[in-house]
Amino acid sequence: MARTVDSDRLRTAPADALAALPLVAYGEELPILRRYWRSEFGHRPTNPVALVAPNLRAVPALTVVRERLSDAAAGWGEL
Question: What are the residue ranges of helices labelled H in 30-76?
Answer without folding.
Answer: 31-41, 58-73
